[in-house]
Automatic annotation (TrEMBL):
Official protein name in the record: Carbohydrate ABC transporter substrate-binding protein, CUT1 family
InterPro entries registered for this protein in UniProt: Bact_solute-bd_prot1, SBP
Matches recorded under Pfam families: SBP_bac_1 (PF01547)
PANTHER family reported in the protein's UniProt record: ARABINOSE-BINDING PROTEIN-RELATED, DIACETYLCHITOBIOSE BINDING PROTEIN DASA
Coiled-coil spans in chain: none
Lineage: Bacteria, Bacillati, Actinomycetota, Actinomycetes, Micrococcales
Species annotation: Agreia bicolorata
Amino acid sequence: MACAGGGSSSSEKVTDLTLIAANSPWTEGLKTLATKYEDETGVKVNLEFYGNEQLNDTLKVKLNAQSSDFDIYGYQVQDVMREFSRNGWLADMTDYVKSDADWNWDDFQQSSRDAVTLDGVVYGVPVMTERHIMYYRSDLLEAAGIPVPTTLDELDAAAAKLNDPAKGFYGIAMRGSKVPLVTQFSSFLYSYGGDFQDKDGNASVDTPEAKDAYAFYGKLLKDYGPPGATNMGWPEASAIFAQGNAAFYLDADSQAYTFLDPASSAVVDTVAYGAFPAGPAGSHPYSIVPQTVGINEYSKKKDAAWEFIKWVTNEENSKTLLADDTVPSARDSSWADDAATASFPAGLVEIVRNSEGTVGHDRPQLEKVAQAREIVGAPAISAIEGGDVDSAADKANTDFQDLLDGEK
């Protein structure tokens, strides 16, 4: 298969490829798979790994120079895909992913496929996933006769009943700092029937649904959260739960192993996992792609690059990475395999297997996402502090729309 504008010629023999990506569990597993690929095909895959910020700086320098000295790169979808695609730096992979029925693009979770698609064009293959779940103290719920909450109202009631600030124990811990909280607030927003933007891409954090979601998120932390919540990102909030000082903690499933490490957790034997509770519009937690792999538009070896991506992300290798390196696959078939999921907590596996209604983004969708998070996080701070949520949401919507208009 040839890719318009730079696919490798059928007469060329590709002997090497270069892949650049951020350090992650996936790239750790990739070290072994790259050697296996060379043994099977004779194609050596050179690997270069960086920290996230260093990766983005490196990519921008190389891509601005239209460099062809690398062929494949990992990137963070929600932070750079819009910028990179607008600049013409990402190859269109739509025909590639849809051309091989055995490789089976439809096996990838719908939210993951949505995350790597922009205006109908597929710009990468998702290699890791992360979703919003509810961690809770099974011992405390059982002792108090409280069923595991399945709705946000039930969560509110359970947190209220278990909250005991006089003893330094809190009903719930979550991110409360303005920028870090945005990703976690997103699931509440979706489950209330809202989103950061409407279907036309305009700001929509001033809708009744959004205002109710802000108010509810703020109420949980104001009434049942630890003091100083507005200064807490995930390290601070998760530490409170890990130390045994909170009944509930809602955040990404990638943190599960933090609570299972006796060196850092006092809740190893009592932590349990629940699906994100349903709001008025149902349960709609984020399920995002923290890392995807795409093809450099300036590569002279696009077809060969696709062959490696196709191989490393096939069903067999996805299961291997899930089993051996606990890389959270984007493939449904990986999570359906009991052997591949054996090292994961059973409760977490069940949540992933039964995920429906998930949303493929956890923040506003635009290039200036960092500025947008500053804006849309502000009403949640007002809610936590007991301020005027409606006015804060109205102002945030105006400011967010100005940012969107400026980007257009």
